[in-house]
């Protein structure tokens, strides 16, 4: 019989895995948008793929702008957005490993 702790661990692990996947999707979208920015040139604003990637990454840029102090210019937010995603990915990966170790009964760090 499964205890309440096992169900909570399964649910936590699932939520952390989903969050990690969303962060990875946003990261690859940023990467794809950057590649298209370089290769599409001035016509990128009419490129369907660029518009879709820009839509996917808009929340990341809004979050980066919200976190950044006012003295950081908008044209520099593109540097902060990938760093923010990388930091979030590291934190979520840590929690995923910790939940997995707790579920197996091993010592978590």
What labels describe this entry?
109 residues; mainly alpha; 78% helix
Q: What layout of secondary structure does this protein have?
A:
Elements lengths: L3 H37 L7 H20 L9 H28 L5
Structure report:
By secondary structure, the protein is mostly helical. It has one domain. The protein is built from 3 helices and no strands. It has helices spanning 4-40, 48-67, 77-104. Helix 1 crosses helix 2 (48-67), helix 1 packs antiparallel against helix 3 (77-104) and helix 2 packs across helix 3. The chain starts with a helix and ends in a 5-residue tail after the last helix. The mean pLDDT is 88.
Describe what is shown at a glance.
This protein has 109 residues and is an all-alpha fold. It is built from 3 helices and no strands.
Strand content: under 5%
What's the overall average pLDDT, rounded? 88
Helix-strand string: HHH
Distance between the termini: 28 Å
What is the approximate shape? elongated
The structural domain count equals 1
Low-confidence runs:
none
Radius of gyration: 18 Å
**Major sheet attributes:** none
- Number of helical runs? 3
Q: Total strand count, please? A: 0
What is the SS-derived class? Answer: mainly alpha
The helix content is: over 70%
């Amino acid at each position: 019989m499964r205890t309440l702790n096992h169900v909570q661990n399964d649910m936590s692990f699932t939520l952390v895995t989903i969050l990690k996947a969303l962060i990875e999707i946003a990261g690859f979208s940023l990467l794809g948008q950057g590649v298209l920015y370089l290769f599409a040139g001035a016509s990128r604003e009419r490129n369907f793929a660029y518009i879709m990637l820009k839509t996917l990454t808009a929340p990341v840029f809004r979050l980066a702008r919200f976190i950044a102090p006012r003295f950081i210019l908008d044209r520099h937010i593109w540097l902060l957005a990938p760093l923010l995603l990388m930091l979030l990915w590291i934190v979520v990966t840590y929690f995923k490993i910790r939940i997995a170790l707790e579920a197996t009964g091993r010592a978590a760090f």
